[in-house]
Design brief:
The chain is built from 13 helices and seven strands. The chain is an alpha/beta fold. The chain has a single domain, classed as Aldolase class I (TIM Barrel, Alpha-Beta Barrel). The protein is globular, with a radius of gyration of 19 Å. The chain starts with 13 loop residues before the first helix and ends in a 12-residue tail after the last helix.
């Protein structure tokens, strides 16, 4: 069954998109009808295509480009209860200058912290161009009242966050209360102001690929600037298959609305080989327009060290040990 066709003027952005979906979001029943009218996911076919694309090999020159691109797409993250301003400053230093022995190494896209660490991150990053992202909305569980989630978001923005990573209410979504999830995303989007909003689905808790497709469309029609797989705090995080499915969703959403939405796989991506596989997925599914850190990110701090070691190998012909790169 084809998905409903909605055609606001191409490139008109959020206001036109919201207007186009006004009938869809009028009630729980209309939103459910739309989301359950999306094409069902062929799980076997999806996983087979993701596995097939993961076998692609690339030449050495392309690998060098891919490594630098992947570094530039990382949201370097610390989300621990023991975080301190000093730890955040050290992480910001690594984001700006990942390899002190090679100043040609790209900077990462962002540093991601809890709201109370945004001010420290902002001060440490200065005018480097590296963004400050902040998780909000009672991350990672999302179990809080809406006014608490909005206060969390506003605090992060007031402290200087350029990007907000919110988590959806998975309980409401799985119970079929789609309008509640939609309205919560809309409210957080408004509270985010000029900050870009990444909407985290926690795909490992959504149970089915059909639910991941529905969550992707729900997030996009609610105004997400990015859709994100995971918090990195559960057993199943980003996988090639669930990321491929989300890339298909943003591709199809732009084809129907003219609005481009980013994708961020997070959690479990640790090696250069993994990163290259995900970049191939982006190129072959959404296309080159998404091969930029404005539209694609990795939520994978441990990935950076392996990328740096592989980069040094290409430059020198030998591997440096992990002691030759800074530790997160």
């Amino acid at each position: 069954m084809p998905s409903p066709q909605l055609s606001p003027p191409p490139g008109q952005g959020g206001a036109a998109t919201l207007a186009a979906f006004a009938d869809v979001t009028a009630s729980d029943s209309t939103l459910r009808r739309f989301l359950h009218g999306l094409p069902g996911v062929d799980a076997v076919g999806l996983e087979a295509r993701a596995a097939s694309l993961g076998t692609r090999s690339i030449k050495t020159t392309a690998k060098a480009y891919a490594i630098d691109l992947a570094i530039s797409m990382i949201d370097l993250t610390t989300l621990e209860g023991a975080d301190t301003p000093g730890k955040v400053r050290a992480l910001a230093g690594k984001a700006v200058n990942p390899d002190p022995t090679d100043r040609t190494t790209p900077r990462t896209a962002a540093v991601c912290v809890y709201p109370d660490m945004v001010e420290a991150a902002k001060a440490a990053l200065g005018g480097s161009g590296v963004k400050v992202a902040s998780v909000a909305t009672a991350f990672p569980a999302g179990r809080a009242a809406l006014d608490v989630k909005l206060a969390d978001t506003r605090d992060a923005v007031a402290a200087g966050a350029d990007e907000i990573d919110m988590v959806i209410d998975r309980g409401a979504f799985l119970a079929g209360h789609y309008l509640k999830v939609y309205e919560e995303i809309r409210a957080v989007k408004e509270a985010s102001g000029a900050a870009r909003l990444k909407v985290i689905f926690e795909t490992g808790e959504l149970s089915t690929y059909d639910n991941i497709r529905r969550a992707s469309w729900l997030g996009m029609i609610a105004g997400a600037d990015f859709i994100k797989t995971s918090t990195g705090k559960v057993a199943v995080n980003a996988t090639p298959a669930n990321t491929l499915l989300m890339l298909e969703a943003v591709r199809d959403f732009r084809a129907q609305t003219g609005v481009q939405v980013g994708v961020k796989p997070a959690g479990g991506i640790r090696s250069t080989k993994d990163a290259v596989k995900f970049l191939v997925l982006v190129n072959e599914t959404a296309g080159q327009d998404w091969l930029d850190n404005h539209w694609f990110r990795f939520g994978a701090s441990s990935l950076l060290n392996d990328l740096l070691m592989q980069r040094q190998k290409l430059a020198t012909g030998r591997y440096s040990g992990p002691d030759y790169v800074t530790v997160d």
